[in-house]
Write a structure and sequence with these properties.
The structure is a homotetramer. The first copy, chain A, has a single domain, classed as Hotdog Thioesterase (Thiol Ester Dehydrase, Chain A), CATH 3.10.129. Helices cover 21% and strands 34% of the residues of chain A. The first copy, chain A, has two helices and six strands; from the N terminus they run H-E-E-H-E-E-E-E. In chain A, strand 4 and strand 5 (122-131) form a beta hairpin. The relative contact order of chain A is 0.19.
């Protein structure tokens, strides 16, 4: 499947390290009970975020909760957006649609976010979630953010 | 808007009190840091669930996080389903679509779930979320659950 | 379920008759093969649109096609929007999510659109579709329109 | 982005030619006014379908209507499903979510469908729509089909 270049620049506005610092400093609730997310990669096309296994995300049977995956999809889209437009305050999710397609295995989850559209006022992302130790998809989400004037 | 009767019975399978006990006993992660949800009402048409204000749901500016609202929409659909088919293990969310339309005010949130379809294998719910002290909608979600053979 | 007043005015910007004329004159593809839609009602809270039974919407078994229902949901949201902000050119659908929950019976369909949010730049609608001769829902959709500066 | 192998077989159940014949014979409303769709490719991972430019899909300004794109997303998912499970009668769409991200250019559209999940009772597809003469996405859809026992 052909990749559409969304950004004519070959560099993101924030590096992976800068997005990590942004997450740690400006998004404290993301690490309310210890480190929750790790920014693995931010590019002009998307990004990759890890959700660390955590007791509070586990459902009976050892599987990871749906809300933990919805939060992961949302934060992945947000961090890809920040990386590509800079740390704009007040960008907000307007729509999130998620399909849960397989039970995740216990352990970390990896989300891959892809920029579908990066417009002036709206940005749309496709997010695919897999168990860290497996290629099989566990969820696919579409996330829309409204971008305030900046 | 006319209400469609989905259940020919005039009684739910579990009472509001039984759904409350189910939530407390079988869903411990819902009260991982103190009571999170309160079952206000379960009927044959839907149900009403309160999300208590909690520090970990607050975003900068005093607003409630999107993931907290997604979790509320999901648990509302789940509890309405349990109330109307009984505590079936392993019912799972297959799709959740949510529109965030206003910033919630600080304080509790109230979700009203409505049964759109209650089939043998799939159930669909409309969930409307409002601040406890306001009539204005903050989010609207559609949630689909797959029901295992029971 | 409590109705949220979205419009502080007690009158729509366009009457039901004016929306009908707008549909007929500015939206000719809607009647490409004879009258397709009828505007039954436009209010400050929403509106009601009929889809006439038409050979090209019928699927094997006498049921109405999914795409015909998606088009009905979209046009219902659009006409409710026009009725409440006036005939703004270039309002465009940005997201549509639809759940098909029952087979419609042969015959006309009626869509009821409800304004969930009517903002400056985005409007969100809930649309419920039923067979004209039945109370049972056949589909539920959420539709978002982007409103250009006007 | 890594491709997940969904089908352990290396061959589809129906060839591209067989899916074309199925479309022409069993889906007559798809060519109600002349040939509407062309099956370009069906694989174990997905498929590619062309929507021919047609007067009835054109909106003022020369752009292609949203409903025409929703129908294209739906039929793409359907034909990929048929190609991979055989011509099962009565598979029905249960959910479709679509983001419209750019105006298409006049001319044909190409939809690429990807199998996200192919289960026993539910199948989920990602569908990307582009103008035939451009790499830029115009829409992205997620489509869920319920598969009857077969």
């Amino acid at each position: 499947m052909q990749v559409t270049t969304v950004n004519s620049n070959d560099r993101t506005v924030m590096t992976t390290e800068e997005v990590t610092a942004f997450l740690d400093n400006d998004f404290p609730e993301a690490s309310y009970h210890g480190k929750t997310y790790e920014v693995l990669e931010i590019t002009t096309q998307g990004g990759k975020i890890r959700l660390f296994e955590h007791e509070r995300h586990i459902r009976p049977g050892g599987t990871i909760s749906g809300p933990a995956m919805m939060a992961l999809a949302d934060v992945t889209a947000y961090l890809v957006l920040m990386g590509n437009i800079g740390p704009v305050a007040l960008a907000v999710t307007t729509n999130l649609n998620i399909n849960f397609v397989r039970k995740p295995e216990p352990g970390d989850l990896i989300a891959e976010g892809e920029i579908i559209k990066l417009g002036r006022t709206l940005a749309v992302f496709d997010v695919r979630i897999r168990s860290a130790n497996s290629d099989a998809l566990v969820a696919q989400a579409s996330v829309t953010y409204a971008i305030p004037k900046h």
